[in-house]
Amino acid sequence: MGETNAQFRQILDVSPIPFALNDENQNITYLNRAFTRTFGYDLTDIPTLAEWWPRAYPEPAYRERVMKSWQERMEKATREGTQFEALELTIRCKDGSDRIVIVSAVSPGDAPEGVYAVMLYDITERMNLLAAAQRADRLNSLGVLAGGIAHDFNNLLSSIFGYMELARGATTESRVIEYLDRGLSAFSRARGLAQQLLTFARGGDPVMQSGNLGTLLSETCEFVLAGSNVHYQCHVADDLWPCNFDTGQMNQVFSNLLINARQAMPDGGNIGAVASNRSLNETSVHPAGPYVEIQISDSGRGIPAEQISHIFDPFYSTRPGGTGLGLATCFSIIQKHAGFIDVESTPGKGATFRILIPVAKSGNSRGASFAKHSAGEQRLLVMDDEELIRAVSQDLFASAGFSVQVAAHGEEALILCDEAARSGRPFHAAILDLTVPGHMGGKDLARLLRKDHPEIALFASSGYSEDPVMTAPAEYGFVASIRKPYLIADAAQLVRQVLRT
Question: Which of 7, 280, 284, 298 is such that its CA lies 20 to 30 A from the CA of 103?
């Protein structure tokens, strides 16, 4: 019998599953290696079940439920001669952590009553994975909900601010103009709220739209540096080339750099922000081509030479309490925009960060033909399923000098394009809503228009951020994407820029 027990314990000792043996006097007589490795206890810690219960289940109410369930299952197995019904329990380990286990017990056939071999199968990792999957499902569901809310919210913002733009242009009363300007100044904050929902809905990938980086730089400078003890100047080139960028993410980059510059000058100083056009040739360290260059400089203490090579490393910070993630995040965002960021600094003379973002490409559009269109001849089609957006777009684009027609869905827009071409007055540009429930949306319409009417410059428009068309419009036949909500004046400027290139 002793030899059999020794062999039994040898088998248990190499088992990856925790095992314990207890005798009829409720002494714990054996713990295998997996038990000690998993829970941390050895026989000196828990020589008896009386020692085990309070250590494994320190919360009195939970311990009482466990002990009651254990006793009931033991009695039932003994009374009916059946197997012990497994229990799912949470055990407190010696180091204070918790493990989730499936506990089962068996009494050897020739052993005295009360002698049991107890198996504790650790399912902690499996339960953690399940919880993570369930959490991801909930987050995905919330993300879909957030994206839908943002889409509807963006449509409302487009309509509200569109009519405010119309009212602004229709009045000459100074007081009314003042009130409308104050209302329109809230547009950036409202768009920022929608952007937060969109960011939550999509995760970390940028959603590109074509626009003016200089305008964003100027707005960010005003927001971050207003009321501070530093003097700043922001200069934006009048003819700054358009770029494809994620407004929220580039705002984060500019904000981080400006905040760092401000913190580098606790006693005040000067900050300069410049947005300009730059063309790189084949001798440059970066790929040749047209870029928009952003420079943000300060007159602070500068960055020591030994730190320059590390400032973009994650978790590297020289500031007490700093996370070391700010510049690493900037670097990651610029990379996702196919751009470049570097820094130059002389200790005692400040630092200058330089960013290069590629100029927006016109995709499959035939840019040469657009140059022939003067403002009075520019014919624009706006396709959107929201009646309010169609109405305000027609009025505002008309006031901006366009000849405008609107369509509620892709089928109607295609008919209008065909009729315009037959009449000898084709559209020069079209802004197409990507999501049109129950009808042809902008993506499918673009495919048909690229085939039948390639002369039209197509712009994708959406309040949904997760659509890949918004990230890479050129891959789907669009020259650029316009993310809702947008001011008609900004959209009109973008259309004209594309038609001139």
Answer: 7
